[in-house]
């Protein structure tokens, strides 16, 4: 192959959380999860792949730095699973399965900062490799899952259900799309970035500790998640925002309760996270109706869900309660408000300035997409290794 293929993949945010594996090696989850795929316009991973007999060895660059493949079992697994797929689809002796691969990837948002970069990153890696070798088939979620569990959900747009499955080899642990992003186009997502630096305990380590030490996890897995998964899928299909919002908040709260029930505890939320939670409930109480919902991953950053019709009013209250000295364009990013001069409806007490680093407003998005596929001068690659 003397072409370079470039693809983009989105971030996804879980409203029913994946937390705990039944198989660490195959990355098989204990429970189902449900997520929303975000628009690539504001947040995405972008990955380019070149492969061929002229590439001297497998290399992966991330944000300009070499990712050591030799010590990264997950990267190695993604490469070997793609090569296995090449043999399955193109024949055991297909020369392409022996080619070395050069990968160059970057995120347009903070990496390893609790903003789901591994989900977008591994989904992008697998999708780009599949495009480079003409392998785009239904197998991709199962491969992306072995890069990072939540990555399997970024293979689809809109609303996605990752079924935990029961098979020991994971043949039934895959992602399916519940509905496309066009199903609920009014949905908006507001990301409140409290802290975008590396977190102390990664999701991988945190959930392993929960499986080993939490006494509440099994109840969540066996009792809570099956019912909530069914109910939230129903709420999504019926576009019942109030039901969707309550289930999302309850699952986020329970997920963090499990983290606190882990020993030693995984403390992902901080004081600002709790101020956000209180503000959202106070706002909904003042509105007399659930207008906005929150969820937190393994970090202090908040992901809010709100319908477009309620966005401007809420944003006016939000920036009054969480003020900043930053310029408005730096502080509020992404989709612009249609009514920037909206007056805050409830006049809540402003908190101290700059509790939030910035706010990103986005919407639902589609799955990964191929954005470039062009021929290259092989000599330029041969001499660049
Ligand atoms: N574009 C990418 N291509 C390949 N791998 C990536 C990419 N972006 C991130 N990763 C991998 O994901 C790791 C970060 O995953 P980690 O789970 O620690 O953080 P996160 O996914 O950003 O946060 P969280 O999982 O809590 O939402 C990186 O160290 C890297 O190994
Ligand atoms: C809190 C979460 O975001 C956990 C994500 O965990 P990862 O998918 O990052 O974990 P690994 O499978 O070990 O790579 C909840 C979720 O996204 O469902």
From TrEMBL:
Species name: Sipha flava (yellow sugarcane aphid)
A GO term, aspect molecular function: diphosphomevalonate decarboxylase activity
One Pfam family per UniProt: MDD_C
Catalytic activity: (R)-5-diphosphomevalonate + ATP = isopentenyl diphosphate + ADP + phosphate + CO2
Biological role: Catalyzes the ATP dependent decarboxylation of (R)-5-diphosphomevalonate to form isopentenyl diphosphate (IPP). Functions in the mevalonate (MVA) pathway leading to isopentenyl diphosphate (IPP), a key precursor for the biosynthesis of isoprenoids and sterol synthesis.
SUPFAM superfamilies linked to this entry: GHMP Kinase, C-terminal domain, Ribosomal protein S5 domain 2-like
Protein name: Diphosphomevalonate decarboxylase
Top-level class of the enzyme under EC nomenclature: lyase
Lineage summary: Eukaryota, Metazoa, Ecdysozoa, Arthropoda, Hexapoda
Similarity comment: Belongs to the diphosphomevalonate decarboxylase family.
Keywords: ATP-binding, Cholesterol biosynthesis, Cholesterol metabolism, Lipid biosynthesis, Lipid metabolism, Lyase, Nucleotide-binding, Steroid biosynthesis, Steroid metabolism, Sterol biosynthesis, Sterol metabolism
